[in-house]
Specification:
The complex is a heterodimer of chains A (about 300) and B (about 300).
Chain A: H1 2-28, H2 34-37, H3 44-54, H4 60-72, H5 86-121, H6 126-140, H7 143-157, H8 170-199, H9 202-210, H10 214-252, H11 257-266, H12 270-298, H13 300-304
Helix pairs in contact in A: 1-12, 5-6, 5-8, 5-10, 5-12, 6-8, 7-8, 7-10, 8-10, 9-10, 10-11, 10-12, 11-12
Chain B: H1 13-30, H2 32-60, H3 91-127, H4 129-144, H5 147-157, H6 162-188, H7 192-199, H8 204-241, H9 252-260, H10 268-295, H11 297-307
The chains are: A mainly alpha (about 300), B mainly alpha (about 300).
Chain lengths: ~300, ~300
Amino acid sequence: MGSFIFKRSFQSILSLIFLVIVVFFLARMTGSPAMLYLPPEATQDQIDAYNALHGFDDPLIVQFGSFITGVFQGDFGNSLQYSRPALDMVLAAFPTTLALAAVTMPLVLLISIVTGALAAYHPGGVFDRLASLISLIGASMPNFWVAIVGVLVFAVTLNVLPTSGTGTWQHWVLPVAVLVLRPAGVLVQVMRTSMMTALSSVYVKAAKAKGVKARAIIFVHALRNSLLPVITVASDQAAGIVNGAVIVETVFGFPGIGKLMIDSVLMRDFAVIQAAILVTALAVFLINIIVDISYAFVDPRIRHS
Amino acid sequence: MPSSIPASVTAELPAAQGRRKSAILRSLLRDRYATVSVIFLLIVLGCAIVGPTLLAEQARALNLKGRNAAPFSLDAGWMFILGGDALGRSLLARIVVASQNTILISATAVLFSVLVGGILGLIAGYRGGWVGDVLLRLADAIMTLPSMLLAMIVLFVFEPGVTNVILVLAVSRIPIFMRTVRAEVLELKQRMFVVAARATGASTSRILLRHIAPMVLPTIINLAALEMAFVMLVESGLSFLGIGIQPPEVTWGLMVADGRNYLGSAWWLAFWPGLAIMLTAMSLNLLTNWLRVVTDPVERWRLETEAR
């Protein structure tokens, strides 16, 4: 088990290094952002001075060297837009996105495990068909569209929820609801299939023969055995929450990492993009490792192998 | 009725194929959801192919009567059944015209990732070795990145436009196909028919293309339909954020983004294009559910025996 996690962490670090290199060189291919940040009437001298100030006139390999040294010291350079350390800005935005994910993911798991398990108990029944239809709709809706239709209905027409911003708990209702939709829709179907497999096994028949109640069979006997595929897909969906967060934060004006990224892409703010991407990738890798460990908790066969 | 004709052992191949086709068709008609999805997808496909040539004029034409026309009213003519925008253009015509880009982009991206991912998966699975390892690591690195993030990095560097959006989406989905094909190949290459083919001296490319690839195809077709729905959602998202397709080109995602500014006064501008995205994605998902049954060897066998 220990060596397994060590191996996975090593692979993740390799992937991270690969990512650092790709992001750095891709970002440098656009050339200097001087044109964007200096007034159009700037002279060549001013442009040169700007490039020299930020080190854009050094050879690429020198820039890369100083970038790497900086990364290891936790220094990603300053934001061109705000002249603040890029890492500070990213770390300031990160908790908002993390909080969004931390509210969303447990909700997703709760909804999908309960719904999927109950739907699997009577395949083809009314509840099953209803759950399948709703989960399918949830998985097929474009999240930005749900977000603005949500604003239209609940904020503009009914006037019960705020349109954007943070502050009260009401501000979190729509963003979280939008973020929950797709992963929950996907996971309900995974859980249903997996639970159906578990329910057709011999130990469930034995439990039924003993007269165990349906609820106990599902949630005590079969649940743990049907969780493995759910965890795998859930970890994919957790990474996908970053996709959703970019859109949700933009629509609802949440000061999270998704909004920070899209703003810095539009403003060509190198340092912030690099820091944001690396921090996000690191978070995704951490999730993957946690998922690997949780496999062992759910399935003793993995723990003891 | 096919069942009234005794099955001939020496049935001619075309006849048997015809029977199987009709069996598949009947199983499609039995699944109501799948039938409706296929019909809807065919309509969308029709719009994507001939829509722009038929309705390009109407999508551009400015009609004073149709300015901000509300939907479900025929006052400005049936072209304005879904409403009109601030310039008095028919929303229905615009949606039909935009379907071409929307479908073209996701279909091309998926086709590209099927081809590249499939070939890389065949190599990684059949050859293994360090080439397989490197491919797998690369796939991991791409897969851990949320596709939106990857798209943002690349579209930050290269001009956003139809070609680059297709490329980004394709690259971000290649790993899925590669890993799926690789996993299937790893299992298939141990099977007797592959060993037999190798023993009779078939070349590697022949084994891969004639013996293994056809066995992997059903899985890939299923996955491709699912991925097409996903890719369409991501493209719409990118276009919505302003880093995907750029005007004057138009896709459904872009139309939702435009309509967002008129949310309070003309909700239909953002609503209908989004609904079109959702219905198409849903149809693709429903189609996959049915396809999974039909392409399952056990189920297929049932279909074939039923056809006799």
